[in-house]
Amino acid sequence: MNDAPDIVRLADEALRAMQASLVARDLYCAEHPAVRLHEERAAASLSAALAAQAEIGVVAFEDRVVLGNTPLPAGRELLPGLFARLRERGSHALLFRRGVDLGQLRTVLAALAAPGAGLPDVPGIAFAHVDGVRTSGAAGGGHAPLPTPRQGRTPRAQSEALARLWAMLREHGQSQPDVVDSIVAEICAAVAVCGGAMAPLAELKSHDEYTFVHTINVGVLSAALAEAVGLGTELVHDVTAGALLHDVGKQAMPPEILNKNGQLNDEELAIMRRHPVEGARMLYGARHVPDTARIIALEHHMHIDGTGYPAQPPGWRIALQSQIVQIADVFDALRTDRPYRSAMPLDGALAILQKNAGKWFDEQLLAVFIERVVGARDRAAA
User: pTM here?
Assistant: First the structure.
C-alpha cells in the first residue's frame, strides 16, 4: 500500500510532537509557546494521517512502539516518555479516530501532564490495555527506561534556584552542587525523551526573566547538541552545567548597565564584555564546579577565527564544549523577545548562524546543531 509508509511517518511525527509538548510543559509552563507549537504539529500530523485511514492504533511493547506490524522510528524515545505516562494510568495502546482535533489533543496532554490525573474521555482518542502484551517495565522486560523530568522543580523555581546559586557564587565563592545537578538532570532527561529535538522558545519581558529562562534554554540546547555530537554522559552533564553557569559573571556587572532597557552604548558594551573573565574568576574559586564550566564561562564569547572577547592569546584553541554553548547561546538570544526588540524569526536566526560558519562557529558543529537539534521539521514549520 503506497500510503502505509506515510501513515507510519505521520503517526511517528504526531507522537513525537505530543511528547515534546509534555516535556515543554515540564521545563517551562502550559502557556509556553513551545507547548502550543508541538500541540499544533501533533494535531496537523494526525489530521493528515487520518485523512488516509479512518483509525490509527499504536501499541507499546517492551522494546518498541508499533503501528500495525511496523515499529515506529521514535519508539525508543516514546517508551520512557509518553508511553510511561500512559502506563501509569493503565494503558499502553492508543487509538486515534478521524475527527480528533486540537482541543481533544490538548485535553489528553493536559491530563498526562498532571500528576495523579486519570485519562479523559474524548471522542477522537481511545486508550486500551491489550491482554497478553508484555509492556516496557514488565517483569522480564528488556527495555531500560530513560529518566523523565516530570518530578523536577517548576520553571519559576528553576530560575529562582539558579538566581540564588549565581548570587552565592558572587558573594561567597561557593556553589550548591545539588542545585546544579538537579537542574542538569531535568534538562538531560528532557533531551533524552525528546530524542534531542528541543529548540525552545521564550516570551520574556524583564531582564531577570531573560537572564534565567534564557539560561535554562541554553542548557537544553547545549545538552541536545552535546548528545548529538556523541559526547559521553559525564561530558554532557558537564557541558549542561557549564551552560547554566556560562553567564554567571553578569552578576558582577553594574546594575544600571545590566538592567538597561535598551541597547548598550560603546562604553557600556566594553564593561559588559568583562563578564566572561568575571565569571571564570568566580568559578575558578568555587568548589563543586566542573572544570568544563570554568572554561565555558571564559570562552563562550570567543570565536574560532580569533575574534570575540576576551582577546585570545596566539595559538589559543577554543574547547569544543565552549563552542557548543556559544552556538546555543547565540541561537536562543536571537530567538528570544527582549525589551528593545522582538524575537527574530527562525529563518533569520539560522541565516545569521550560517553567515558566521567558519568565522564564529565550526561549520560541522553548526551543521549538526541545525540538522539534529533545531531539526528540519522545526525549520519547515517556522
Answer: 0.70
